[in-house]
Amino acid sequence: MKEQPKIDIPGTGFGSFLNAVSVLVFLTMLVYLFVQYGALPDQVPGHYDGAGQVDRWGGKEELFLLPLIGAALWIGMSVLEKYPHTYNYLNLTEENAEAQYKNGRLMINVLKNEIVILFSWINFQNIRVALGEADGLGSFFMPVFLAVIFGSILFFMIRMLRK
Length: 163
Description:
Order of helices and strands: HEEHHH
Keywords: Membrane, Transmembrane, Transmembrane helix
Oligomer: single chain
Radius of gyration: 19 Å
Domain DUF1648: 24-70
Transmembrane segments: 12-35, 63-80, 106-124, 136-158
Organism: Planococcus wigleyi
Mean pLDDT: 93
Number of helices: 4
Structural class: mainly alpha
Number of strands: 2
Pfam family, one: DUF1648
């Protein structure tokens, strides 16, 4: 395996903005969870089917699982974001390495923030369903979730191929 050049690629203002937005959304969801926790019934949504309807109920402690996973992913991807020379690239050369690394770093940033915002939305809806304020995630959630994640990946892959 050929060693890829190591170039220090600083974060972007857009990446910092996305980080701030996702952290704000995440913290807002956590505050909402703690404020509503006492009012929640013992059973809350634990899983949804593809149509966005609850297909498993669990204890309300499970509402802390998704934020824990989201925080772990966000932290892990934040660390990974700083090492774009470790990613796999197509047609990486000395001339395009900096542009490829910037693209790769931004892709990881966008994906981590999308995941945290989507996880926060799911947990917010879990609370609303448990309180009887909503029926489920809605039939639109799965297609939107998939379109956002895979659309972002496709966007950055096309950018990679053009660089």
